[in-house]
Amino acid sequence: MKICLRYLSDPGYQQGIGKELGVSQATVSRTVDRVVNSIVAQSNEWIKFPTTNHELMEAKRIWKSMLNFRQQLV
């Protein structure tokens, strides 16, 4: 998991990341592939999009409060 997180945080060369973490480029490649595929396989369970206008407005409210978004001028 650490290998995948390191790669996703700065997707440079796999060989360089492997050297940094003490593993081969092939290990970096396999690890990233397995972790990302696992996340994608479970995404329907973890990622839920609002289906009603009320759910959409509530999601917007939560994100604005969590991230301190400013109101956009239109």
Automatic annotation (TrEMBL):
Protein name: Uncharacterized protein
Species, as recorded: Acanthoscelides obtectus (Bean weevil)
